[in-house]
Specification:
Number of domains: 2
Radius of gyration: 18 Å
Order of helices and strands: HHHHHH
Number of helices: 6
Largest sheet: none
Distance between the termini: 50 Å
Shape: globular
Helix content: over 70%
């Protein structure tokens, strides 16, 4: 494994991800303050059910305020996504900066599959509660 290439790819991915995240955060903040209009969820509008991403902005805002349980109730994708990103960030840095030739991060897709499964299962449960029992977890 070439650590220089891994480091280059790490920098490129973090710059792209960081700029994308900052852009999204800026747009969300502009929407929250009323400077930009909020756009309705097309999936919600068409089906009257929540998509797997619904509640993500509320979950992010709750997480930034330190309300972890509230964040997970809105949408666990945010907290679990942060955990997944931190895992890869830390383990790739460990691989780059240790003297050993050991790879600390997993090349397996299992963590990503588990993440997507959690998100989809939560979305299905949330929609069953909404459609079957009238329980609206997002109070929309």
């Amino acid at each position: 494994m070439d650590k220089k290439i891994l480091f280059r790819d790490y920098i490129i991915a973090n710059l792209a991800g960081g700029l994308g995240s900052l852009s999204m955060f800026f747009i969300i903040m502009m929407q929250e303050t009323g400077k930009l209009p909020k756009f309705p969820c097309t999936f919600l509008y068409a089906t009257h059910m929540y998509c797997p991403g619904c509640g993500g902005t509320r979950a992010l805002m709750a997480l930034l305020k330190g309300h972890i349980i509230t964040s997970v109730c809105y949408n666990p994708a945010v907290l679990f996504g942060v955990g997944l990103i931190l895992y890869y960030e830390i383990t790739v840095l460990m691989t780059i900066f240790t003297k050993k030739d050991k790879v600390y991060y997993t090349k397996s897709m299992l963590p990503v599959i588990i993440y997507v499964s959690i998100v989809l299962i939560f979305a299905v449960i949330r929609d069953i509660l909404l459609a079957g029992f009238g329980i609206d977890m997002l109070n929309s």
